[in-house]
Amino acid sequence: MEAILEKDGDIAEDISGIPISVSGNKWVLPTHDELLASVLIQKLDIHSTIAELMVRRHISLAEAENFLSPSIKNSLPDPSEFMDMDKAAARLALAITKSEKIVIFGDYDVDGATSSALLKRFFRMVGTEVSIYIPDRITEGYGPNINALLDLRKKGADIVVTVDCGTAAAEIFEEAGRSGLDIIVIDHHIGADKNPEICALVNPNRLDEKTKIRHMAAVGMCFVLAVAINRELRKSGWFKERQEPNLLDILDLVALGTICDVVPLTGINRAFVSQGLKIIGQRKNPGLAALSDIAAITEKPTAYHAGFILGPRINAGGRVGKAELGAILLSSDNAEEVLKAAEELNRLNTERRALEAVMLEEAIIQAEAKKDQPVIVLASEGWHQGVIGIICSRIKDSYKKPVAVISLENGHGKASARSIPGVDMGAAIAAAKMAGIIKTGGGHAMAAGFTLEENQIPELIAFLHERLGKRIEEKLQNVQMFLDGAITISGINADFIETLSRMAPFGSGNPEPLFLLKDIQIVKSQIVGANHLRCIITDAFPGQSRTSLKAMAFRKLETPLGRHLLQDVHKPIGLIGQIRQNEWKGSKKIEFIIEDMVTA
After folding, report:
1. Alpha-carbon distances of 125 from 37, 96, 130, 220, 238, rounded to whole Å
2. What is the mean pLDDT of residues 581-596?
3. What is the pTM of this model?
4. Deepest of 165, 374, 408, 578, by most Cβ within 10 A of its Cβ?
5. Element (H or E) spanning 418, and its range?
């Protein structure tokens, strides 16, 4: 690794000499505009590491200050910018003043649960109680269904607000509308050719929408709706004898849903998460507080805690248990009710992990036999529908190819699909539906879902290979993995961690920085749990500081990386991963999260 050149704070600029990694990845560090980085350093008084990271991530001079100090005030769009937002706000404000019965119809994932809970809490803040309906994943499937809507109407509902679903339900809404039910859709999924004829369709991705703000989660759109309704109520004098709510208090739900729905953490989303994580830390939501306690979160909450600890537990209800548990947890103020929901979600998450382990083992056996195909399509009788999405992501990450996983039951299949950057799986699934190859389907470029008959699987595989094969081959031939810098162990200290934290929150669109930790050796490596490794690493060469550091490799035991971590003890190597600081009972410890490895 002689080609590594030292620069300010042990950060290297030219690391083109890195060999192919043990996982077969080609790691590169993109060049950056040094002049712009210098301007950022001078204007914002920031460390060169942060300036270089911002430039590499194409953050302009005009955006830089708000990126480092994101605020709702500077980032929140005018609600009227979105089509039908004013219609939705006016209708719901009228419903509040007339005491009409409102029902929130939500999806069963975290975005749906947070969206539903946010609106219920907002309506409660302005003096109106509403109810929530979450369909069952297995018996009802995704989105609105006519039986549920007609039943809600029979029980007295005047308005149904669908959140994180509904854009493609034109025919269902037409029938429901004949019953006298008013319907408002708050969604963010790609629009259909025909918009439903309803009171309001608020969706930044409806095909006729003009806004440039496209990438908000449904919960973010629900927050903007709350701002719009609040404005309507203020105009009507509703708050003359009532206290106007502080909407910032529900940003904890916006942050959680935004992180878990993996939308880009840029612009308003970055502000939502930055400010919302502070509210989570204040423990204002009883359900989030109870779940945090059960999950043993004791440190300051971060995007990691929301996405990998809280989110999976809330999702577990929709995957393998009662779909409404997440919404109950997040919307209730009853201490006994939220504790019961938190405990049940934690139990269901343990059950989900056990199911996942068995299904993943079976899926890997199938995937190994199909790993040379452009798209890996897996199917099995009895695979749990609530877990196939997770399995799909795991296989996609392992084989770096688009994947579809199908759960079969009596000849009928329900499936999840995941893709790689530059390969639009959502469009392919939509095309397969148009061609009659599958029964239903839709989604985004990176994720989709569909249903089909078992005898349609061979035709679907052929269709996907024909449509996507060439594009996938092009992408796989030019795969490069991008680093954010290189550093030695001696360069990792509290000041560096504090500097790096200014780039947070991390997530889609602003990933956690990846560094090459160079000139090191493993002095101890051991297996932890079922599939993890813990290493003690230190400087590799005599005369260095011999500083040691703990490093963890999660779910890597049965991989080439895992085998090298166990075998290459006391050899000069480089590790690629993230630098994190954990806080436990007031003590702060730095550790390295291993993603890959290069040999000297």
Report:
1. 45, 11, 11, 18, 12
2. 83
3. 0.87
4. 165
5. strand 412-418
